[in-house]
# Entry
Amino acid sequence: MTEIESLRPIAAVLISVVGTLAILAAHRRPNFREAVTLVVSVGKFGIVASMIPGVLAGDVYVWSLGSFVADIPFALRVDSLGLLFAMLASLLWIITSLYSIGYMRGLDEHGQTRYFASFAMSLSAAIGIAFSPNLIVLYVFYEVLTVATYPLVAHDETAESRAAGRKYLAYTFGGGVAVLAGSVFVYWLTGTVTFSSGGIAELAASDPAFARAAFALLAAGFGVKAGLMPLHSWLPDAMVAPTPVSGLLHAVAVVKSGVFGISRVVLDVYGPETVAELGVGLPLAAVATVTLLAASVIALRKDHLKRRLAYSTVSQLSYIVLGLSILSPEAITGGLLHIPAHAFMKLTLFFCAGIIHVETHTDYISEMAGIGKRMPVTMAAFAVASAGMAGIPLIAGFVSKFYILVGTVSTGDYVFAVALLVSGVLNIAYFWPVVYQAFFQSSEAHDAKPLVENPLGGATRSNSPRSDGGRPIDDEEDTEAPATDDEDDIAVEDAEADAGEDPELDPEDLGRPDFSGQATERDYSDPAPLVDGEYAVDRNPSDAMIDEEPDTTEDGETSHTERDDPVDVDRGDDTHADHDHHGGPPAGGWDRRGWLGQESTWFMLGPILVAMTGSVALGLVPHAAVFLRLIDDIVSTALTLGVVF
Amino acid sequence: MIELLATRWAYATFVFVMATGLYMMIASPNLVKKVIGLNLFQSAVFLFFIASAYVAGGSPAIVSSESTGPYVSPLPHVIVLTAIVVGVSLTAVALALIVRIYREYGTLDEGVLREVVDD
Amino acid sequence: MTDVVLPLLIAVPILAAVAPLLLSLRTSETGWYVAAVATAVEAGLAAVVLSAVYDGARLVHAVGGYPAPYGIELVGDGLSAPVVALIAVVSVGVVAFAYTGGPRRNSFYSAFLLLVGGLMGVSVTGDLFNMFVFLEITGLATYALVAADRSDRSAVAALKYLILGTMGASFFIIGVGYAFISTGTLNMVDLSSRLAGQYTARPVLASFAFIVVGLGLKAALFPLHTWQPDAYTYASDTVTTFISALVSTVAAYAIARVILTVFTVAFFEAAPLARWAVLTFATVSILAGGLLAVVQSEVKRMFAYSSVSQFGLVIAAFALATPDSVLGGVVHLVGHGLMKGGLFAAAAILAATHGARTVDDYARLGYRSPVVAGVVAVLGLALVGIPPSIGFLGKYYIAVGAVRAGAWPVALVVFLSTLLTLAYVARLLERLYFASPDAAPAPSLDAALADGGETEGESGADAAAPASSNAGDTRTVRSVSVGMIAVVGLAAVAVVALGFVSPGFETLLEPFLGGVFP
# Structure
């Protein structure tokens, strides 16, 4: 292993700092500004990729500025683990930039300069984290990452996003402080904080109590960003950020920097042998397992799509931590492979959620029935990616999960193997319904969501008004139906006086149509009774009708009532009475769009398809896709022996 | 205790005067009295230095043909002189500030001042 | 021969302080030029001292030719050189700032130069009583400067500071008195050798206690800090910038000097209670200052409480008395001076441009004054300890020192202080950039400002008066110029750049640390 002095590591970090400045300077010319982002991202990936052949051949690229604090140098060092993360982050930044352009322009968002500038800075920090040669440089870039991503989390500038931003800062800085404390401990115990393959030798010889304390501090500090329970709760709240942010940063860069930190600690600070000797691997694996299962169970109950994806992320990240803490070669390989695998798949899923938001303003799964008609390519990609999440072969998630399973079984930790399999089932349980209802159900007749809250076998719901006038409960419906409709109409009109919902209005107060699905005996051969010379439904026409359906005067206006929080859908904490949302299918159901990209712009569809293809490629040819080769290299240098325990 | 006071009565006085000055600074509401208390405090410190410099049967620190015996060190006296000067200038600045406060607020009472300032 | 620099450091500003008063017989508003020349000379002298000490020399000058211990010695070593440099740099910066912003009265610059002289005196003196004299010169000049804007509230604040500060100085002199009667000398090096046998004697312990309490009052440690929020808040903005960076700094330097040179580490070993008392004092200060800062709504007051917290950190570092923590203490002392001075200067600019005095007033100023708000962000994050910055450097060394000394509660508090500082800094930053648009005050002067525009220069030159809402606020600087923004920008750059200079600090302090820790 030769060390090559090179400027490429620092160039990879600094190119997007230059990009940040250029973006800030170009704030008045959006096209130029976006071009800067794209050029810089391609450039960054180019620099990172140029180092692949060297690293695979066993060389290491280094760059140093000299002593930074105490005798710890400020340097950058590109080895296979760092290159793994850097490649992932820089490659996915390219497609996320394209997606961001489509997303931000599609929503005509404010503050785009700040957004793109912070994005570029965050990627710079992420590459810095990847190339850190010691704990202190890692800490430096870790904190810079937090600072750079904060403006992205609080982007919307609403009270909710400010609160989410504050929570994010509190958690991640707390994590940073724990990392610093752990690094100080390691420095005190051993006199060095440099990453060494197989671990820092002196750490094995130092006082076990302090070594364990340092490990706990480092694991907790990195675990905040890696979403280990109970330090994960910033992640679902951070979903108020725009979707590309949620995708790249919270499913790929920020959270992956947390697991990257844990992998550095396990492999290069302590080393697998020391971790085993100190006995800290097992508690970490236990925490990861609990997170795996608990997050999956929580995800089942979430109706907001992005939150469900957030809990899925929390769960999947723990696969990585579990793999790392089992300490056998296959488990570590699987854990590390899951870093890119999950990244590609989760990015696809988030991009799908985002494109749905842009095109239809729909955020809730219960409103997405039949959306496969409107967004076929998107939902197809969603289906592929969620299959991968569940561990279906041919997609990336299967390969990594297989390795981890083999690893747990080979060390005799059957508990973890069972947990992984249960988690796979849970993954299917919370992703499959989304896909199924998109393609095989329609907005008129679909299962009430979330499935776990409703009777076994499903309860049929509809997002559209019934074209036959409704189904009252008993015989007196002829006289009562108009009356209830009147109340509904008036209440609906009050609520929609400003072409938007009154945030304070509790949906429970509005009249509830009955969806019990019981048969009626109403005779539909006669027209509905007139009240004061007009139909009840015409008396207070709604002004919030969707343009695509101009002829639904009779039932168009009631569509809002049914759309808001129909009876029996428990959103848990996803109450959207306070959101200014108008999502869900238009009256009459979703439009049909073709499979050739008519559903949205290619700015967004392209990245989705690329990410999906990436996850399939990783599933089919993981070695050829470089990542697995890098990982084999990492694992073989980290473990001098074979199976550890 | 009694012989302590008898032999080191100067230091006891120092403590007593210091405590009185401190009490005046804390307890009296009038600003000028606070400054007087500050002066008392500082005077107590001077007393401390001078008392510590006392040499029984000592002669002044001037060498002449008939002086013998222990000489009193001039250093503490120099210290006290310097400190007196410092104290005087501080008192001057304090009184100037008090004059301005009185002109602006019309009161020298600390309680009234606190209410008036907090508007 | 370079040791002549030391008395010049003190003499130049004090002599120059007379000039504006003399000149005011003929002209007015020439004081600035005198101050500019004097501080430039000071900067040159400080550079000479710094480079000499960096090369390993220890400058000693016997004033008047009287040798120590009979005469007064001036010493420039690894501990005093950084402080001297800080004083010189901040003086130059504040004078540059005051060209457009500050008062231009001659009397102001007389007091200013006296203050510089006093600060330099405290930093280079090697005699304990001489330190008292210079501390009082510093104090007097500061009391006068705090009241310089001729408003009523600043007079009350100045009086409060005077009374408390004099008490602090009196405690200091009592402590010096006890040390004197135990040893018969006032020279610091001589004291250290003569105190050596009697560390547990009561007068010596009493001396240490009085000195530390007295200096702690001057450095505004909790619970002796009560003068500081009022003094910083009600003084005029230029004055606050200067005194926040330097006055408490030299008091903390004095504590370090007393602990490390006069009493030495051996004293702490003989009387461990002394060390634990100071550590407790300092640690409580860190927490109390941070907590009090979080609940403040006025920005200057918030920064004042922040100083209480940061000085707690510095004194804790010196009280730990290990090589790492002392290095960290010095680094943080210098760094805090730059950061806090820069923050107050930036706050002054924002107050003048937008009339923003409270945290609420800062809503969305990040877009209306992007450069200055950016400086606030950088300096605030450096204060929290985000790398790379001098704030991180200091904190890291102090944390390593605490862990190495086995002082776990102190280490824990050092780490927690990061989060506490974050609490009030993040509040400010969130307000600057992410406040909801309806919370922002309507633009008063800069209605034509577009997103991302930087028009301080134009609006400053055109609109000399501060925003109308604070017409009666005498603290505000007269107007804002590009030069002032450049000064605060330089402060931010320096704070980040110094974060990479740790080898420099280590070289600078190595001889000193070698002498203190045999």
User: Anything to note?
Assistant: Chains A and B do not touch (no CB pair under 8 Å). The first strand of chain A starts at residue 3 and ends at 5. Residues 243-278 of chain A form the longest helix (36 residues). Confidence is low (pLDDT under 50) at residues 474-502, 544-580, 641-645 of chain A.
